[in-house]
Automatic annotation (TrEMBL):
Domain called Aspartate/ornithine carbamoyltransferase Asp/Orn-binding: residue spans: 155-299
Function (record text): Catalyzes the condensation of carbamoyl phosphate and aspartate to form carbamoyl aspartate and inorganic phosphate, the committed step in the de novo pyrimidine nucleotide biosynthesis pathway.
Domain Aspartate/ornithine carbamoyltransferase carbamoyl-P binding: 2-147
Organism: Metallibacterium scheffleri
Protein's recorded name: Aspartate carbamoyltransferase
Enzyme type, top EC level: transferase
Entry binding sites for L-aspartate: 82, 167, 222
Pathway: Pyrimidine metabolism; UMP biosynthesis via de novo pathway; (S)-dihydroorotate from bicarbonate: step 2/3
Length: 304
């Protein structure tokens, strides 16, 4: 791998290799090996044009734990505000001899654009572009599930919420379908579901009570208000009544079903606090796994 833009074209062997590498890093960390020198002398730049807590922090921690030099580009105080174009920004930063650019942008396709225009030695990692892809989130979700359920082919995975605007849903679908889950269900209000042609092989529906029934994994999504035209925004109380994951609704899933959410969570809109903080919630495990997945990706792309 030179770049990581999407999981769409990665085969199962590549996904499993990345998950195995992340798991090995997690186990090593649990046994006290938190720092490695695999990226000593390498320089990684976090270039986040959209807000982030989990992804940006975990990429920074991951790079530091591999002994890379890390720069967090401060967009708010950068010359982007003086009108510098994305391409000029890219070439300016590259002139400082970077090894990797980790980019998040509201426009889908921005990481691809950077691959096309970046110097040949620079790796580009997509940290989320529009509603297109969030590949490291797909990987960390798969790792979290695999830590609890060994056989993907025995699993029904339901993703519920604002699927239309969700890059997480798309990367999760790519990861879980390639890893061979038995059934993938996508649920949400009709207005927030994409066309079935985008997700061949998935079951789409708007009845969450029916879709959650028997699910082994339930992945809840945030309403992406920042990507929505106002007319799509549902009434939050009505939305919670039909699509919120409550304890009562979770009882319809398979016993001990895993509850995931990429965060940030909207308590009382897509998930009840009793579920987000409950025994079936794996949300903070997802966050912890994010560091190991990002270490694995950085090591895979950059280690000599
Ligand atoms: N899951 C995720 O991308 O979270 P952040 O927006 O906080 O990075």
């Amino acid at each position: 791998l030179r770049h990581l833009i999407t999981l769409q074209n990665l085969n199962a062997a590549t996904l499993v290799h990345l998950l195995d590498r992340a798991e090995a890093l997690r186990v090593a960390s649990a046994h006290g090996t938190r720092k490695l020198d695999l990226l000593h002398g390498r320089t990684v730049l976090n270039l986040f044009f959209e807000a982030s807590t989990r992804t940006r922090t975990s990429f920074e921690l991951a790079a530091r734990r591999l002994d890379a030099d890390v720069v967090n580009f401060d967009i708010a105080n950068s010359s982007t505000n003086k009108g510098e174009t994305l391409l000029d920004t890219l070439h300016t930063l590259e002139a400082m001899h970077l090894d990797a650019l980790i980019v998040r942008h509201r426009e889908g396709g921005t990481p691809d654009f950077m691959v096309r225009h970046a110097a040949s030695g620079v790796s580009v990692i997509n940290a989320g572009d529009g509603h297109h892809a969030h590949p490291t989130q797909g990987l960390l979700d798969a790792l979290t599930v695999r830590q609890h359920r060994r056989n993907f082919d025995a699993l029904t995975v339901t993703i519920c919420g604002d699927v239309l605007h969700s890059r997480v849903a798309r990367s999760d679908v790519h990861a879980f379908s390639t890893l061979g889950v038995r059934e993938l269900r996508l649920c949400g209000p009709r207005a927030l579901l994409p066309g079935a042609e985008e997700f061949p092989g998935c079951v789409l529906g708007d009845d969450f009570d029916a879709m959650v029934a028997g699910s082994d994994v339930v992945i809840m999504l945030r309403l992406q208000k920042e990507r929505m035209i106002a007319t799509l925004l549902p009434d939050e109380d009505a939305y919670f009544a039909r699509y919120g994951l409550t304890s009562a609704r979770l009882k319809r899933a398979a016993p001990g079903a895993l509850v995931l959410h990429p965060g940030p969570i909207n308590r009382g809109i897509e998930i009840a606090s009793e579920v987000a903080d409950g025994v079936q919630s794996r949300i903070l495990e997802q966050v912890a796994n994010g560091v190991f997945v990002r270490m694995a990706v950085l090591a895979e792309l950059l280690a000599r």
